Give the backbone structure.
Amino acid sequence: MVVETAELQSELEEKGELMLAVSEFDEPLEMHLHDSEIEDGVIKIQLTDGVLTFDVDEVVAMWHHTHSLADFGLED
């Protein structure tokens, strides 16, 4: 899957958050509208202890991440 910058930006703005599979990381990354920036093909995610930076070209998949009541042990 090739992810285009415009598509990624549009999905992030529409959904507010996305999960990303990035080729250089073993675990998926969570990207939020409030702490992420996409500029000139580079993604920057502000973390509590620094900034994670990687190229959009490194994104191999993206999906919308949701939670349920069961995820938090709150189901009836």
Summary: Helices lie at 5-15. The first strand starts at residue 17 and ends at 22.
